[in-house]
Amino acid sequence: MKSLFTLILAGLSAAAPAPTGHPSAVPVAAPSAPATLVAKNALSTYPGAALLGAGIEGCSVDAAGNMYAVNATHMISLSDSKVLLQGPGGGTSHFASSRFTRTYGTLVGDAAAHRLLVAATNTYFMTEAKMLQPNDFTVSRDESKIYLSGMNYSANTGDLWVYDVTTKTPVSVCLDGVKTFRMNGIELSPDDKTLYVTSAENGVPEGMAGASVYKFSIDSSGRPTKPVLAIDLYKELEKKGLDPKKAGMDPDGMRMDAKGTLFMTLNAFGRVLMWDTSKPACESQVIELDTISFPTNLELGGRDGKTLVVIGKCKADKTGTSSCVDSYQHTTPGRAWTNLQVSRRGGSYGYGA
Where would I find the SMP-30/Gluconolactonase/LRE-like region domain in this sequence (predicted)? Predict the structure, then answer.
């Protein structure tokens, strides 16, 4: 019988495509540079990450803080490698994202099939042929709305949808007034009033021309409206002395903590951006990654929900076929983990805890 490792990697290969004082003043020592933040190798804690290969994506957390991820054909537990869902791969199915919910079980985004699946039953939760993918998705706190992002890489385009679970109605979000391109990372604020979405523009003839994060106001019906630019990522990173354009940095997965700090993987750049959204973007910080060069996704989990887990392609592997996992100890639990505690805390979401 073939090993799980062999089966998962075989599925991958089969899948589709940062004033001088008065001269007389007493000299004051210059302030020290901010401490370098580093997410360390966490493979010993999450050995399952090594099984998913270069296509590792879609990190998610359950109510107990256990971590999971997907590749094109499998969703597995990162701690014990248990398979939660297996798909056919090929051109008809390509897992790209996952989220745990209190009400609907574990949902998996199937980009090639334009649908969300329920992992436990391998059945459709929602499907919409007009959606480009979905690439990633996020769930409202009361679980009545699901927001989905997608892209067409070659066409340099993206889309945004909101799915009303009660009426089973998917609606395309109007993006008039802003120039968006490939849309990928997506996350709600802890109070569900703001939606953050990445947009990345391909360069000509190759590379990257730019990358941004837009924020939308969520109206009373749950629709994203009034999009505005939240961060020009290339400009902000250049202010920190970094050169994202040379590296071809492409923003990928995003997650929030329970107090509004946004974490974003900087794919092809070996870093994560951490931004307290209550403060100016210039105060954002960069987290270096110990073993990952191409981070694809991340989530906050662990027993107290405060461990930031980052997944992606390994630095040490020049073939670009293996997957690694790093972790960083944060001070606040994640939004997703916190929302999952409602059933454990008698109706309290635990915000401010």
Answer: 122-310
Residue the block writes with tokens 């391109």: 181
CA 254 to chain centre: 3
CA distance 344 to 29: 51
Taking alpha carbons only, the member of 170, 165, 191, 171 closest to residue 104 is 165
The CATH H-level superfamily of 35-343 is TolB, C-terminal domain (2.120.10.30)
Q: What's the DSSP call for residue 6? A: H
Residue whose token pair is 């020290």: 32
pLDDT tens profile 288-309: 999 999 999 999 999 999 999 9
State residue 8's pLDDT score. 57
Q: How far is CA 57 from its chain centroid? A: 9
> Structural domain boundaries of the chain?
35-343
Distance, first Cα to last Cα, the chain: 48
Longest distance between any two alpha carbons in the chain, whole Å: 80
Which helix (H) or strand (E) element contains residue 234?
Answer: helix 233-239
